[in-house]
Design a protein that fits this description.
The protein is an alpha+beta fold. It folds into 2 domains: 6-122, no CATH class; 125-252, Alpha-Beta Plaits (2-Layer Sandwich). The protein is 39% helix and 26% strand. The strands form 2 sheets. A 4-stranded antiparallel β-sheet has the order 2-3-1-4, sandwiched between helices. The two termini are 27 Å apart.
Length: 264
C-alpha cells in the first residue's frame, strides 16, 4: 500500500533560534512542528497529509466553521510560541506547500521581503483596540407619561420612539468623536496602524456595536505607556461607549503582504 502524499503546512517565518525551547510543540491536527532553515531565515512547519490540505479539500473545509476554528487555534498557538522567542512574520491560515524543499525555495525566492518584514517587526508587538457603541447601556429610561390631553396613544408611542432614536443618535455621535480621539492618541504611541473593518455583532459576544477595530504596531518599551493611555481614554469614554484593548499579539496585521502572499 503506497504511503499518502505529504505536504508542508507553514505557520510563520522567523530568524533561526534554539528550537530546543519549543520541543514537543504541535500544530494543526496535532502534527509536530519542525523548522526549515535557509541562511538567516527559518519557517515553522508541520508535515500534514496532502489530501487534507490540497486546494480541493481546503475549499470544502473552509466552509466548516468547527474545522476552521480548530485550525485557527492551532495555527495561532504555534505562531504565539515562536513569536515569544524570536521576531516572527505570521503567515496566513492554511499556507501549504508541496514539501519542505519547496518551503526552502520560497524562503530563498522571497528572502528580501521576509527580511524587510522581520527588520520592521523586530522589538515590536501588535495591540488591538476596539470601540463599542451601545445605546442600550444607558441608564433605564424614565416611564413614559400617559398621553396628554388631546394626544392619542399612537402619538404617545411615536413620541417615545422619537426619544429613543434621539438617544441612539446621541450615542453614535459620541462614539464617532471617541474613535477620533482614541486613534489620535494611540497612533502617536505606535509605529504603524492597521484599520480593520468593524466586527459584525452577529460574530461577537461583546455587547453593543463595534465601531472601531484597529491594530497598532508598538515598540515593546512603549507598551506600558500605550496601555496607560488606553486606560485613560476608557475612563473618559462617554456613557454608552467603551474602549477595549487586547494583546500583546504576534504582529499579524503588519506582516508584509508581498512576503506572505506567496503561492504553493
Amino acid at each position: 500500500m503506497s504511503r499518502p502524499e505529504e505536504a508542508s503546512y507553514v505557520y510563520a517565518v522567523c530568524r533561526p533560534f534554539d528550537t530546543a525551547t519549543v520541543n514537543g510543540l504541535t500544530g494543526v491536527g496535532g502534527h509536530p512542528v519542525h523548522f526549515v532553515v535557509d541562511a538567516d531565515l527559518a519557517a515553522a512547519v508541520s508535515t500534514v497529509p496532502l489530501d487534507e490540505f490540497d486546494e480541493q479539500a481546503l475549499h470544502a473545509k473552509l466552509e466548516d466553521l468547527r474545522w476552521l476554528e480548530e485550525v485557527a487555534r492551532a495555527h495561532h498557538g504555534v505562531v504565539d510560541e515562536v513569536a515569544a522567542r524570536v521576531v516572527t512574520v505570521p503567515l496566513r491560515l492554511a499556507t501549504v506547500y508541496r514539501g519542505d524543499e519547496r518551503v526552502r525555495q520560497v524562503l530563498r525566492e522571497h528572502g528580501e521581503a521576509f527580511d524587510a518584514s522581520l527588520r520592521e517587526l523586530l522589538g515590536r508587538v501588535e495591540l488591538g483596540v476596539k470601540v463599542y457603541a451601545d445605546a442600550g447601556a444607558r441608564a433605564a429610561d424614565p416611564p413614559v407619561p400617559a398621553a396628554s390631553v388631546g394626544e392619542s396613544p399612537g402619538k404617545a408611542y411615536l413620541r417615545k420612539r422619537r426619544d429613543q432614536r434621539n438617544r441612539r443618535d446621541d450615542t453614535w455621535q459620541k462614539a464617532v468623536r471617541l474613535c477620533d480621539r482614541v486613534d489620535e492618541v494611540l497612533a502617536g504611541l505606535a509605529s504603524a496602524c492597521a484599520r480593520h473593518q468593524p466586527q459584525s455583532a452577529a460574530l461577537s459576544a461583546a455587547a453593543g456595536e463595534n465601531v472601531m477595530n484597529n491594530a497598532y504596531l508598538v515598540d515593546q518599551e512603549r507598551v506600558a505607556d500605550f496601555f496607560a493611555a488606553a486606560d485613560e481614554l476608557s475612563s473618559q469614554a462617554p456613557e454608552g461607549t467603551r474602549v477595549e484593548v487586547s494583546g500583546p499579539w504576534a504582529p499579524y496585521s503588519f506582516a508584509n503582504a508581498s512576503a506572505t502572499g506567496v503561492g504553493p
